[in-house]
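Dear Dr. L.,

I hope this message finds you well. Following up on our conversation about the binding site, I have prepared a predicted three-dimensional model of the protein together with iron/sulfur cluster. For your records, I am including the exact sequence and ligand specification that went into the calculation, followed by the structure tokens. Please feel free to forward this to your student if that is useful.
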Amino acid sequence: MEKTSIYGLTLDQLTSWLVEHGQKKFRAAQVWDWLYKKRVTDFSEMKNVNGDCIKLLDEHFHIQTLDQEIKQESKDGTIKFLFKLQDGNLIETVLMRFNYGLSVCVTTQVGCNIGCTFCASGLLKKNRDLSSGEIVEQIMNVQHHLDEQGKDERVSHIVVMGIGEPFDNYDNMMDFFRVVNDQKGLSIGARHITVSTSGLADKIYKFADENIQINLAVSLHAPNNELRTKIMKINRAYPLEKLMPAIDYYLEKTNRRITFEYILLHDVNDHKEEALQLAKLLKDKRHLSYVNLIPYNPVDEHNQYQRSTKDAIVGFYGTLLDHGINCGVRVEQGTDIDAACGQLRSKQIKKDKEKAKS
Ligand code: SAH
Ligand code: SF4
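The resulting structure of the complex is given below.
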């Protein structure tokens, strides 16, 4: 029987599992506390848990399944981790420092099938979904790293913006939220968690119906179908006339603000005309919208794209503001350490392939 990660279970699931395996219900709260409050890395360290229960857990679950391959630290305090999964696949996790707290960017899939033309993650087809345990474990690894530093720091925010399309791994993503959000555990507030999707409209409807306060970001990147299909082929399956009604449903149902991500690509989507089209597209929902303008992070393999000029960025921003659209330009973190999603991983895979050839 193959062991799975203990982090994959929500508190309810752990409780049922322990009861089904002949343990008392209260053991679940104890184990949970050791995992997420005291944060041990071995079942044998769970001092008030009886030997039988420890043996049972040890037989069925792993605590650590990720191996840290690389840890790159940037001058601004951003740390990028490259982890090896048990099956040898590589994933990335990033820790960023902001004035409001420490935020971790997690990966949800090995590669990505959406294949956006500007993205390093989409260069490599999806190999598989991550389990909920593997997503939680990324947070735990970063938290263990912080614990080792002894400065009493905790991960306070999460962005689901690493490699992969989270809405294409929906159920595991939801279990991940339930684990990290649990008040008896890491207790990371739902309002401090943001999930970004390339725009899978059917899943946006589903997400709107979840009774959860997690923030939603949608990667829009273009204000019309022609341009959006050119840079994001997902727009064929979910063009704007399918995506926008799903967003309207979400806004109506939750009354929560939504973020639209818009990468500025030089001479592709950064003209005044597109800024005007975008303002028009968002006009009726501008009270609940925020546009995050993202300076493009150049990816070696996508050399058809360059970053917009400063003037173009300022101009685009100004046009949106003039039309009453809330917006900002994303402050970049860790630009000296391959910070664009998927870059560290794709470079490492390339290096490994070259090594294998020689
Ligand atoms: N798959 C999801 C979440 C992961 S990508 C999505 O696409 O929304 C997170 C964000 O990073 C997305 O807005 C994506 O468009 C953006 N991104 C991808 N490659 C980038 C690059 N090279 N430079 C800047 N942003 C990039
Ligand atoms: Fe996948 Fe998001 Fe990259 Fe598009 S931007 S290829 S959806 S990870």
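In brief: The first helix runs from residue 11 to 20.

With kind regards,
A. P.
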